[in-house]
């Protein structure tokens, strides 16, 4: 074999040899497409009522109103009235659920038009057995929520900007028998012999006002509601 042939053979072997692993460069490929997470909202129904609970403690009320309210309640109880507190500070998420369930149930609000709220993954829209949107099934689910919230007799939709959210309102039932002799904030005894013997008594509203605790005065009826300004 000539020297030329040997040189060519050596070149051929060199070109056919596998590349050294130290000379291979890999180019990483990164998927920059954002991940998509599909959240399945939970259908409306009575199970939502236990979520975002409302406080019934006066200690959760805002400064100022808390002291006024506790003085008024103390005067009521000292006079022999029964006072049962059902709500003080309310989370805005609960106000949202209460408001729209009432609107769908009581005013036939189209559940498909209810605005979403961050942090509340509820689906107000229900379908029938055939998978078709059903206004009646959607309303029944909202009505179950209204009943579970105890809002069957409420004559006005719970506010989305309620004083409860600020800690400046309370829901309480008040009752007594006979004549209620109560001391107002001016230390004057007021005898209330009129009816009803409940928190809806207008004479009692006057006494509450002396403590800067105002009975609900908005549209509709909200029997247990008192606040800083009646709203």
Q: What report would you give on this structure?
A:
The chain is of the alpha+beta class and 231 residues long. The protein has a single domain, classed as Muramoyl-pentapeptide Carboxypeptidase, domain 2 (2-Layer Sandwich), CATH 3.30.1380. Helix content is 31%, strand content 13%. It contains six helices and eight strands, in the order αβαβαβααβββαββ. The strands form three sheets. It has a four-stranded antiparallel β-sheet with strand order 2-4-8-7. Strands 1-3 form a two-stranded parallel sheet. A hairpin with a 5-residue loop joins β5 (180-183) and β6. The protein is elongated, with a radius of gyration of 34 Å. The model is unreliable at 2-24 (pLDDT under 50).
Low-confidence blocks of residues: 2-24
Identify the CATH architecture: 2-Layer Sandwich
Number of domains: 1
CATH C-level label: Alpha Beta
Distance between the termini: 109 Å
Coarse shape: elongated
What is the CATH topology?
Muramoyl-pentapeptide Carboxypeptidase, domain 2
Q: Report the radius of gyration as a whole number of Å.
A: 34 Å
Strand order of the largest sheet: 2-4-8-7
Strand tally: 8
């Amino acid at each position: 074999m000539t020297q030329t042939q040997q040189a060519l053979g050596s070149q051929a072997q060199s070109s056919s040899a596998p590349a050294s692993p130290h000379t291979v460069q890999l180019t990483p490929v990164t998927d920059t497409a954002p991940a998509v997470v599909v959240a399945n909202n939970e259908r409306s129904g009575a199970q939502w009522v236990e979520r975002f609970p409302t406080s019934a403690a006066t200690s959760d009320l805002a400064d100022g109103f808390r002291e006024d309210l506790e003085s008024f309640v103390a005067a009521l109880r000292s006079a022999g009235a029964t006072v049962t507190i059902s709500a003080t500070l309310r989370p805005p998420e609960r106000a949202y659920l209460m408001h729209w369930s009432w609107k769908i149930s009581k005013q036939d609000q189209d559940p498909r038009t209810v605005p979403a709220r961050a942090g509340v993954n509820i689906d107000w829209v229900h379908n029938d057995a055939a998978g078709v949107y059903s206004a009646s099934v959607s309303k029944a689910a909202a009505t179950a929520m209204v009943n579970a919230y105890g809002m069957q007799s409420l004559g006005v939709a719970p506010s989305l900007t309620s004083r409860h959210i600020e800690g400046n309102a309370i829901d309480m039932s008040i009752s007594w028998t006979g004549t209620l002799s109560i001391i107002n904030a001016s230390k004057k005894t007021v005898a209330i012999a009129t009816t009803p013997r409940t928190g809806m008594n207008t004479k009692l509203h006057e006494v509450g006002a002396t403590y800067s605790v105002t009975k609900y005065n908005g549209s509709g009826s909200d029997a247990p509601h008192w606040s800083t300004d009646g709203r």
